Amino acid sequence: MKPLKRTRDITPLPSRNFKITVDDQSVEACEGETVLSVLLAANYAKVMENDRNVASGAYCGMGVCHCCQVKINAKHKQRACQTLVKPHMSVETLTNRFKEEGIKHD
Amino acid sequence: MTSQTHDKVVIVGGGPAGTAAAAELACHGLKSVIIDEAPKLGGVIYRGPLRKTDSLPHLDDNLKRAMTALQTRYQAHRESIEVKTQTRVLGPEGSNQLLLSDDSGLSRQPYGHLILATGCHERSVPFPGWQLPGVMLLGGVQLQLKSGLVRPGQRMALVGTGPLLPLVACQLHKAGVDVVGVYEASPFAKLAKEAVALLNKPKLTLSGMSMMSYLKKHKIPFKYGWGIVSAQGEEQLSSIHVAPYDSQWRPQRDLAEQVAVDAIGVGYGFVARTQLAMLLGLEHTYSKVSGYVPALDEWHQSQNHSAFVVGDSNGLLGADAAICEGQLAALRLAWQCGKITESELFSRATKVNNKLARIKKFRFGFDRFSDRQPGLLSLAQPQTVVCRCEQVRKEQLDEAIAQGVKDITSLKMRTRIGMGDCQGKTCSSYALDYLHQAGLTENIGVIKPRFPLDPIPFTLME
Ligand code: FES
Questions:
Q1: What is this structure's pTM?
Q2: Closest Cα partner for B52 from A29, A93, A105?
Q3: Which end of chain A is more exposed for a tag (fewer CB within 10 A), N or C?
Q4: Sign of torsion, CA B410 B413 B416 B420?
Q5: Residue B457: how many CB atoms within 10 A of its CB?
Q6: B267 to chain A: closest CA residue
Q7: Are residues B25 and B140 in the same domain?
Q8: B249-292 pLDDT per residue, tens
Q9: Smallest CA–CA distance from B176 into chain A, residue
Q10: What is the ipTM of this complex?
Q11: What is the DSSP letter of B301?
């Protein structure tokens, strides 16, 4: 597993932290953070592919726009900006049910 | 309402308004429950860092003081305030309950009295390229700085209007971001005209000036009368075009400049978050600054449901005003519950109201300065998507209006705007402005909030 580097933290991470995986890479995270903060810290701008197959990044950052939905622990459509990280969490970006299950729009 | 639970005051939203209301209620012996979707009290503005940190080198003292003040307000009365964080209100259930969801499942919250302090969210202004990863709303940028302690980009510009622009620019720069430009849509002359209004809050005006000099000292260009035209990038944002705006905020495209960036913050205003108030059946009226806001009496109480609505969720006035409004509602409620006399109510309320009046004068100065002009609507081109969730393009709005659509519900049926995951929170203010611009102002309605206000995960239904 390739480790992901966090390059965008404003203050150092506390010493007690843990790892989560993002798209099969491991990255450090700590208690209290949102999944979105971890993604941004690791330089992920593009996080979601929506139901209309358009890629997007976090836009409102506060749970309103639904533009940051990722798959967390195998569950689709979790808002990265509204979910706190937990140890061993597995996050997948740019996943979408429509794409994965071959569902087509009219 | 005889049993104890039925007398409970339930406050939705733990920002400045909700927390101030709870603390004031506690002063008069009334217990309350605050429900907030975030992990921490404070609201988007004063929540502060979500992870542990020893210092906050990028945040100014005013903000740190206000964050501490809010926590102190709560701590002083914590015995009387029950706090349910990471809990979402899905909507009303029956006549005196709310349906909630949290990690452990669905639950009901009965209430005797209700105070809504649900705040606001940002107004979206579609422009070519606004869907590119890296384009964020100003509040989203701020949340990453203040709560996430993360830089949302390395080379950033800010576009929009209002006092948040210099504030966020300073925070970004102190956080180590290369801030390449700040573009304020309104001309400086308009701000100068508001000098008298701004003197109602001399401290804030001074801190605004010191922010401007900070930007100057660090050679961060701040351009009045300029704004966004478009954003470009392959997979993600790599540059933007900005141009001088005329008095109607129409970009002078021939003078546009290209600026290389990897992220931007866009902030052309806010909208009151009134979905829950609407679901409760409160009457609403349209305001250009805040969108649809509930009709309330001078105590911020509604006629038809007797719920209080305080803070930005009944009209945008900012955090200081939100605190005053929370206190006013709490005082009124304390009087209604027989905890204070009428003379106590009025003497205390007069003080709060005087403070509120000063804040309003200041705020209205900025509102006039930042009054959004019709040119913003012209940024989106025919092919530009205006509803992200359903990928509805602007030309589809034009087509629908040409075919005779006259209200927002028909527009929704015809084009699918507002039907996606965000339930129209992102696109509806643009759509309303667009209908207004087409000359449709009578009975255009609102995109009706749906129950549940927040998606219920399947796992909670099993
Ligand atoms: S970024 Fe808007 S919901 Fe997460």
A1: 0.95
A2: A29
A3: C
A4: positive
A5: 15
A6: A60
A7: no
A8: 999 999 999 999 999 999 999 999 999 999 999 999 999 999 99
A9: A10
A10: 0.95
A11: B
Do the beta carbons of residue B307 and residue B315 sit within 8 Å?
A: no
Q: Does some domain include residue A8?
A: no
What is the tally of structural domains in chain B? 3
Cα B200 to averaged position of ligand 1 atoms, centre (Å): 36
Q: Give A70 to chain B, closest Cα distance, Å.
A: 13
Q: Rounded to the nearest whole angstrom, what is the distance from the C-alpha of residue B189 to the centroid of ligand 1? A: 36
Q: Which residue in B10, B37, B32 sits closest to B103, CA to CA? A: B37
DSSP, res B148 = I
- Token couple for B375: 């040119």
Q: B155 and B263 in one domain? A: yes
Containing structural domain, residue A55: 21-99
Which residues 6+ apart lie within 8 Å of A97 measured at CB? A51, A76, A77, A103
Whether the CB-CB separation of B108 and B99 falls below 8 Å is answered with yes
pLDDT of residue A50: 84
Residue B384 sits in which domain range? Answer: 380-438
Phi, psi of B309 (to 5 degrees): -130, 120
Question: Can you give the CATH number for the domain in which B332 is found?
Answer: 3.50.50.60
Whether residue B138 is found in the same domain as residue B48: no
Nearest to A57 by CA among A81, A28, A33: A81
* Min Cα–Cα distance to chain A from B366, Å: 23
> Does B296 share its domain with B424?
no
Residues of chain B with pLDDT under 50: 1-6
* Mean pLDDT of all residues belonging to chain A: 92
d(CA B36, CA B15): 8
Q: B266: which residues sit within 8 A by CB, 6+ positions away?
A: B125, B130, B135, B136, B137, B138, B158, B159, B160, B228
B228 phi, psi to nearest 5 deg: -75, 145
| Alpha carbon distance B170, B24 (integer Å) | 34
B460 reaches A (C-beta below 8 A):
no
Residues B152 and B254 in one domain: yes
- In this complex, the residue of B50, B133, B140 whose CB is nearest that of residue A55 is B133
Count of C-beta atoms within a 10 Å radius of residue B246: 13
Residue A105's pLDDT is 62
Pair B262, B132 in one domain: yes
Q: Of B397, B462, B391, B377, give the one whose Cα is nearest residue B420.
A: B391
According to DSSP H, which parts of B85-234 are helical?
A: 138-143, 164-174, 188-193, 195-198, 202-217
Among B214, B242, B267, identify where a domain stops. B267
Residue at a domain's end among B267, B288, B307: B267
* B248 & B325 share domain: no
Put simply, whether B237 touches A (Cβ < 8 Å) is yes
Residue-wise pLDDT for B340-386, tens only, equals: 999 999 999 999 999 999 999 999 999 999 999 999 999 999 999 99
